[in-house]
Amino acid sequence: MLTLVYRLIVLLMIVFVLWDLWREKDWRGQATASLVLIPLILRFLLIK
Amino acid sequence: MKKHHLSALLNCAFLVVVIILSGKSFMAMHEQPPIYPGPGVTEIRMLSEYYPDLKNTAGDTEVYVLQGKNPGGSMLVLGGTHANEPAGYIAGVVMIENLQLEEGTLFVIPQANRSAFTHSDPQEGAPQEFTIETAGGVRWFRYGSRATNPVDQWPDPDVYIHQSGQKLSGSETRNLNRAYPGRSDSTLTEKVAYGIMQLIREEEIDVSIDLHEASPEYPVINAIVAHERANELAAMSMMYLQFEDLNYALELSPTNFHGLSHREWGDYSNTNAILMETANPIQGRLRGKTTTEMIMTGKDACYVEAARLNRLYVDFDENGHPLEERVGRHIAGIRSIAETFAELNPERGMQLEGLPSVENLQAQGIGTYLHSPEL
Fold first, then answer.
1. Do B19 and A38 touch (CB under 8 A)?
2. Smallest Cβ distance to A46: which of B4, B12, B151?
3. Which residue of B has its CA nearest to A7?
4. ipTM at complex level
5. CB-CB under 8 Å, B27 with A34
6. Is A20 on the interface with B (CB under 8 A)?
7. pTM of the predicted model, to two decimals?
8. Each residue of B186-209: pLDDT tens digit?
9. Are strands B272-279 and B223-226 parallel, antiparallel or unpaired?
10. Total Cβ atoms within 10 A of residue B30
11. pLDDT, tens only, B242-279
12. Taking CB atoms and an 8 Å limit, are B15 and A37 in contact across chains?
């Protein structure tokens, strides 16, 4: 149950960061959002 | 489509590539190298046979049983309690692939904390694997972490409160050698500890040995740590080892330091609990560049300097402490303890045949005593 809640929180963060990435106009801000997403997605998939 | 949406899509494509590449690298850690059981292995069990809740979990691990031709005493050897201490793990593999018993029964668990072999410690620059040349090709072995993979057990508490009430830092909750005697309704690490305790109790193991390595600046090094029940056995074994020019320090297991194998195995079963340590620079805080070669050669210029400044608890020169020496010391210790136990308990004898000496290992290399990889 704890893992499920944790993954839902991470998923929510991924959606928000992806939304910011889509709306961001500066490519440097987009690259920053991409880098933030890497560990979040690996964590959501329970790979690392 | 707006220009910034196009660059966002390009960023997402980059993201997917990085996730796939890094994900594959992390997932590859779950692949474990094969072990080729020698003629002495009579049965391969899983730890979950002693504690069924471990079945299909990351904590389940192989237990190799070597039944002697004649009945006698029983011994358990654990390697890989800490997956970043390869001498214990490799000593277990060498025993599984070479050892034959005339008398008694041996249980070997080469990867005691299996989950710890599926990741490496962050910020240590640790390699994911290392290789050993054999007569028929190169064998690879996993280099893991001191603790259970946090993917398998999380979150760490701020403070790890052992069942005795002892308080340790939160990350120690994933350290198998702080988890004994374990609990059946607790974390994965404590369940593994409980499974090993069940094995010791159900098989009525006479002698249990936990193989470790430590950094050269750690005081308990090249040492045998014994529970008070095993003190005489360890002292006599150490004396016999000194006749072979193998010097060990004898340490009595502290009664107020809980969770460790040499303390809790002895307190929660009738076994003679012993832990052995060798010197391994790759674990040390004073080391230079962390490389795969360091695992094998045990050489490090920074430790040579530290030895010159008298900061270490073990001799350290340009020759280092190669894996052959470290594995050889563990095997010599196990052989000596088995022979001494048989001397003290003639009706519970254990006769181990086919194990290499330190001199054999150093002269011929560990690969001589490992099965060639099956292609």
1. yes
2. B151
3. B151
4. 0.92
5. no
6. no
7. 0.94
8. 999 999 999 999 999 999 999 999
9. antiparallel
10. 16
11. 999 999 999 999 999 999 999 999 999 999 999 999 99
12. yes
